[in-house]
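Researcher: Please translate sequence to structure tokens.
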Amino acid sequence: MDDATTSTDIRLREGASIAQRLVMSGFAAAVALCFTPGLFTHDTLEIIISLVALLVGAGFVVGIMMAPAVVWIITSNEILIGQQRPFGKLRMRVVPKDDISGLQVPGSKRVKARFQLAFTLASGERLTSPPISDVTHVRDTVARIATQFGVPDVETPVNPLDASNPEMRLGDPLEPFPARDIRIVALIAVALCAVPYAYKLWRGLPPGPVDLMLLPIGAIAAFAVHRYANLLTGAFWIIRPSDIRVERLWGDGSLRADHIEGRDVKTITVERRGRSEDEHCIVVIRLHSGRRFRSPRIGSRAEARAVATEIVRRLGIAPESSKI
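Model: Translation complete:
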């Protein structure tokens, strides 16, 4: 981690790698090319739709490939800011210590455990850094920077994943869905599957095999919603110095808690759960018994690695058991 508290300088980075840009650009280009056949038709509407899709796809490709990569190097006397686009020159800016008059640490609205440094300069300009990748030492990092630059009254960020917390918390405390909402969703499922059958009867037409098949499907869907809706609430992890408490809900809304201790862990890995490595990485713990526990979404791969490293430290797990 580039912004580890043990290094002299703090490095913060933002921007996808060339490989990630190529994958995202290829996906956008492939979707846009799916509309290419419409250009060779005689339908004006299809031609317009195809042209719009190609233009939007081209815009996505250009936007992805031209997005700048940003790196901040925070030293004891200044901040070095470098910005470079894939086909452009490196732009450098130096912000001396004496120009900094204020510091705030705003959180992210999309990812709870993501924090950035917002510096206010003497001129009134506001500079926002890339996210702090070591989310387990945000308070130490902020306190260190505030001391280095002599910035007073810096509000301590509320960080559920900070290593200074006796308990690190991943996700939100679980609450079962209200019974009324579950009944409403179950009734909607039954109604949607019964609509074709009711329509045929209303028109005086004989129901077809599909209409008849939908009726038991609706009943099964309603039963599944009523029985298993609470299983979709996810998990809530409480990471303590010697164990991890994993809370989940049974289908009836009652709480289920599992405890993971260091001696039970076989491997700890960081995996991507979704299309983006910037927001959809999680920690996966595999036990000697074969069971796997997947954490709630953490954020970027660097942020998930920081959490996994702290889990390894707290549980006293051998380094060779972690693949982070």
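Researcher: Any highlights?
Model: Confidence is low (pLDDT under 50) at residues 1-6.
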